[in-house]
Hints:
- The protein is of the alpha+beta class.
- The protein has 7 helices and 31 strands.
Amino acid sequence: MSSPLFFLFLIFFLSIVSAVKLPLSPFSHSDHPLPKDPYLSLRRLADSSIARAYKLKHGTSVKPDEDALSSASTASAATVVKSPLSAKSYGGYSVSLSFGTPSQTIPFVFDTGSSLVWFPCTSRYLCSGCGFSGLDPTRIPRFIPKNSSSTKIIGCQNPKCKFLYGANLKCRGCDPNTRNCTVACPPYILQYGLGSTAGILVSETLDFPDLTVPNFVVGCSIISTRQPAGIAGFGRGLESLPSQMKLKRFSHCLVSRRYDDTNVTTDLDLDTGSGHNSGSKTPGLSYTPFRKNPKVSNAAFLEYYYLNLRRIYVGKKPVKIPYKFLVPGTNGNGGSIVDSGSTFTFMERPVFSLVAEQFAAQLSNYTRDKDVEKVTGLGPCFNIAGKGDVTIPELIFVFKGGAKMELPLSNFFTFVGSTDTVCLTVVSDKTVNPSGGTGPAIILGSFQQQNYLVEYDLENDRFGFAKKRCSP
C-alpha cells in the first residue's frame, strides 16, 4: 500500500476507559540535541516561537462540518488513560501513541494549537530540512500502512473527509447522487511555523493498554519540511484527538526544560468522563472559563483555546494593556490563547513593549546586555555579575474569576551562557502596529507552563491550573 500512496501524493504535492494516561516529555529526538552553544539554542527557540506565533495569528484552515461530528469514532472500555509526556530540546513535548493492527508506536509532538493527528507515513517518507545535529532523517520513526490490517484510505464522500474540508467539499469525479464513489479524500497540506507537512487521510485503530478507539481519522504524511516527528493535535477541531475520543477533559504537568532529552516523563491524562461528576473540580486547581472563539472567516481561530486574560502584573505594578489586545474583536484580532506547541510566550509588540518596559524600570540597577539580546533574540537581558543577591519582579497573569498564574522565576527568566546574564523568555515580532495585528495578541507557551498542573475541562468549558512539581 505504501508505494502507491507515496507516488499518488508526491505527484499531487509537486504539481469505556474514562481516562487514559500517556507519558509526556519535552520534545526533540534524543539524538537531536540543539547546538551546544547556549546563545544559538535560545535563538532557535525564540525564532521558532515567533514563527509559530505568526502561523497561529495568520493561519487559515477549512471550516469543519459540524454535521459530521455525529460520525466520530466511539471509544470502548476505560475512563482515564495515561500516556507519558517528555521534554525535548527543540522546545516541544513528546507523547507516544499506538496505531494499527498490530499496533505501531510512534512519537508525536503534543499540540493544543492545531487539530489534526498525523504521523510520518510509509517507508518512503521524505523530510527536507530535517538534518538536524545528530539526527539521521532516514531513521525518523514512521507508520507503515502495509503492516497494518486496519488501515483504510478515507473516501471523498466519507463524512470524516469534511473534518478538514467542510460541508461544501466537492468530490471531483463523483456522482453526488450516489455514495459508491471510490475517489479518495483530497490530500492535505499543513503549515507549522517553520515546518510543514502533506499527506492523505486514513482511518486507523488507536490503541491504549485498556482502550481501543476504532476508525480514528489520522493523517498519513508522505512529505514534510522541518518536521522530524508527527503532531498530536489537541485543538478544538473535529479531527482532533479530544474530539474524536469525545474527551470530557484532559490534563498535563509539563516537566522542567532541564529534563530535555532525558527519560524523565509525566502523564498526559485523557478523561472520557464516565468516572466523575460532570461539574466536579480537581482539588487545588484555580479555574477560569474559556472565552468563546471569535466567529470569523479564518476557521483556524475556531481551533484555539481562548483565555479570559484580564491583567498582567510585573511585580506589584499592573501593566496598562489596552482592552483591544485582551479581547478578540469582531475581526478576530486580539485576545489570548494557550498553546503547548509554542515554546516561549508571545506578545504582540505593543503589549510586549509595555511588559518589557516595566521589567527595565524595576531592574534599572542592572546593565542591559544588548549584545546578548542581539544574539539570542530575547530581551530585555541584564548583566547581574557581582551584584550578589538579585531580586527579579514577579510576572503574574490574572484571569477572569480571579485565577492568578504567578509564574516561578525560572518560567520567565533564564540564565544565558553563564551566571552573569539573565533574559526574559517572552518574545515578540519586530512589527509595531498600534492599532493591533492579526489574530491572538498573546499566546501562552509551554515554557511558562513548566511545573504547572494544567487541565482543559472541555465538558465545563474552563481552564484549570496550579503550581506543582512535575518531575518525579
